[in-house]
Amino acid sequence: MGSGQSTKWLQNYSTMKFDQKPMVGWFDVKQLVSTGLKTVISMAFGNYADKREIQAALTQNEPYNYSNKEDIWIDYISDLGDGFNSTYTMAHLLAQDYIEINCKQLSRGDILIMGGDEVYPTPEKIEYQNRLQGPYNAAFPWKKDEPKKLKPNLYAIPGNHDWYDGLTNFIRLFCQGRALGNWLTVQKRSYFAIKLPHSYWLIGIDIQLKGDIDEPQLTYFKDIAKKEFKDGDKVILCTAEPTWVHASLTHDFEADQRIRYFINKILKGENDDFYNRKKDSIHIAAILTGDLHHYSRYETEKNSNGKITQLITSGGGGAFMHPTHMLKEKIEFEDGSAAERLTIFPDAGDSKKLAFRNLAFPYYNWSMCLFFGIFHVLTTWFLQSSTHNSPGGSFMETIADIDISMANLGEYLLIVFDNIKHSPSVFILNLILFSGVLLFTDTKYGKHKWNYIPGAAHSILQLSNLYFWIWVFSIWNLNHLFLPIDGIWQILLFSIEIIVIGGIASGFIFGIYLLVSILIFESHPTEASSSFRHEGYKNFLRMHLTKEKLTIYAIGLKTVVKNWKDVGTNEKKPIFEGKDIAKTLIEEIDL
User: Fold this and answer.
1) Domain presence at residue 27
2) How far apart are CA 245 and CA 522, in angstroms?
3) How far apart are the C-alpha atoms of 530 and 508, rounded to whole Å?
4) Over 312-367, what HEC string results?
5) Residue 302: Cβ within 10 Å count
6) Phi-psi region of 6 (alpha: psi -120 to 50; beta: other; left: phi over 0)
7) Is the model's pLDDT at 384 over the cut of 80?
8) Same-domain check for residues 332 and 402
9) How many helices (H) and strands (E) does the chain have?
10) Please, how many CA atoms are within 13 Å of residue 215, restricted to the half-sphere of its CB?
């Protein structure tokens, strides 16, 4: 492709028509099945479809050099490409020439780093177009008369959601010299090394789906570290997962050990005579990550050289908010070192308050309620069919004669058990419901296997909910409305009652379970947040590196703009206007 063709293509690319998407409905049944299948396929075949080796074979092991600048501004954002309101609000902020906050003018980044999960839920081309490219193109349109050397550069590392297609679309978007709005992509691989002014480096690594750093990637960074790193150099490391947080919450230190190996063996070159440097002369100033959609900062203890590392999670680029109240105040690592939590956004109180939105689970997740309702109707249909010709009357006819009370509960349960044991199909459906809900239990976070106690209670409640409403509606329809058991209106009414009321009740039980899990058992952090997919509490980092110091500004938004309106006249070049963005400076960190 010649230079003229390339410029024309970039202009067309930055005027792409797109649909404004709502936040991803993670409890939408169709979405769950689709994402689940793609996740399984990716986990099973990820190593076989690993394109990182191909990238390594086609590109040189050279860093991207910005070291000739006196000072440089760098933006960092992660976990973006979700609903339009949140994604565009953050893109709009990033695109401004400067942000004025606390009487300071913070200039737009000369470099924009996207720290993982650039799109949700899966990396199809259409999802990238609607959820990432469209909003960012509109927020910062391509300036055709501006020389490329003046355009801010864009680098990205993939998260697990970008990996679900083996990086196919990620590579097309970020590794082929294309534009995202007026940001120009530079990298040729899914990882990169950037040489900054004043002895700083910015390293972005690709950990694939399970914290895996492939051999060509290790070689790439090892070569750069050997040839380019000098005594006293400082590193900002970008990775797609906060291994220190996951280790503290799950007691699984494997991913954290891999990152430590990368730092100690590859970047610092410990026990390697070919690294002509003093031991521990390379300082990891900060590790930046997303994956958890909130802001938190931990600070390590001083090492043998009196240096500390900032461990920053900044995953507020657009996706639903993760809770912060379950984050440990102190993390102790296997090697005896520790890190102290200094800042979280939102604070623990607001995080807990937002968790109560799970009580509105049916409102946020009506398709899940519909699924439960239809499943309950199917179970009742099989149960009624298997007892239709019973001498004592069908199941519904039998229980309609039993008034609802605790005194009659035992008699009712005996009838239920007696009918289920003679109906294999109903038994199987009950088993599917019970075991499916039980297997949903989160054993990764919180009290781990003890979480099966509330998980089992949840299963029992879901099963009880089914039979409670069968009892209620049998009495109501047959004894109060006097509808014939086999009449079309009774069947239709009963189906509607079970689907609507029974389904909503199942959803409410589900929400209570998530609320109890996140507040008491400190489990299901993702499920108990994605259930109400809160758009607020977004954040990103703006860094300023000068000869004197590196300053990190953590910028947060409690709410995003929701009234964006397209006032443009060209549907391929939308211009959005909305109310002012209320931003806050979470904290300012000097390194």
Assistant:
1) no
2) 14
3) 15
4) EEECCCCCCCCCCCCCCCEEECCCCCEEEEEEEECCHHHHHHHHHHHHHHHHHCHH
5) 11
6) alpha
7) yes
8) no
9) 20, 21
10) 2
Closest CA to 452 of 358, 507, 523: 523
Of 47 and 108, more confident: 108
| Whole-number Å distance between alpha carbons of 293 and 23 | 14
Task: Give the Cα separation of 591 and 587 in Å (integer).
Answer: 13
- H/E stretch holding 7 reads helix 3-13
Considering only CA atoms, which of 515, 29, 556, 552 is closest in space to residue 299?
552
Query: 3-state DSSP call for residue 167?
Result: coil
110-156 pLDDT, tens digit per residue, is 999 999 899 999 889 999 999 999 999 999 999 988 998 899 999 99
Answer whether residue 320 is part of any domain: yes
Measured N-to-C along each axis, helices 503-516 and 366-386 cross at an angle, to the nearest 10 degrees, of: 120
Among all chains, which residue has been given the structure tokens 């900044």? 314
Is-contact 554 513, C-beta < 8 A? no
Counted domains in the chain: 2
Query: 68 is written with which tokens?
Result: 């000739």
Report which of 49, 56, 79 is spatially closest to residue 191, judged by C-alpha positions. Answer: 56
Which residue in this structure is represented by tokens 């995202």? 180
d(C-alpha 82, C-alpha 80), whole Å: 6
Q: Same domain, yes or no, for 105 and 227? A: yes
Residues 350-375, mean pLDDT to the nearest whole number: 96
Taking the C-alpha atoms of residue 84 and residue 490, their distance in angstroms, rounded to an integer, is 44
From its phi and psi, is residue 80 left (phi > 0), alpha (psi between -120 and 50) or beta? beta
Cα(591)–Cα(586) distance, integer angstroms: 16
Name the token pair of 570. 């060209």
| 369 lies in the same domain as 481 | yes
Residue 142: domain span: 63-346+537-556
Nearest alpha carbon to residue 166 among 339, 335, 39, 3: 39
Cα separation of 496 and 484, whole Å?
A: 16
101-119 pLDDT per residue, tens: 999 999 999 999 999 899 9
Amino acid at 196: L
Query: In 421-526, where does DSSP find H-type helix?
Result: 424-439, 452-475, 488-497, 503-516
For 591, the token pair is 């390194």
Could you give the angle at the alpha carbon of 283 between the alpha carbons of 278 and 284, nearest 5°? 145
Helix 406-420, helix 366-386: angle, nearest 10: 70
H-run or E-run covering 100 = strand 98-101
Residues 476-498 have a mean pLDDT of 92
- DSSP symbols for 86-118: HHHHHHHHHHSSEEEETTEEEEPPSEEEE-S--
Query: Residue 265: CB partners within 8 Å, gap ≥ 6?
Result: 271, 272
63 preceded by cis ω (within 30°)? no
* Phi then psi dihedrals of residue 234, to 5 deg: -120, 145
> Is 567 part of a structural domain of the chain?
no
Q: Rounded to an integer, what distance in angstroms lies between the CA atom of residue 82 and that of residue 84?
A: 7
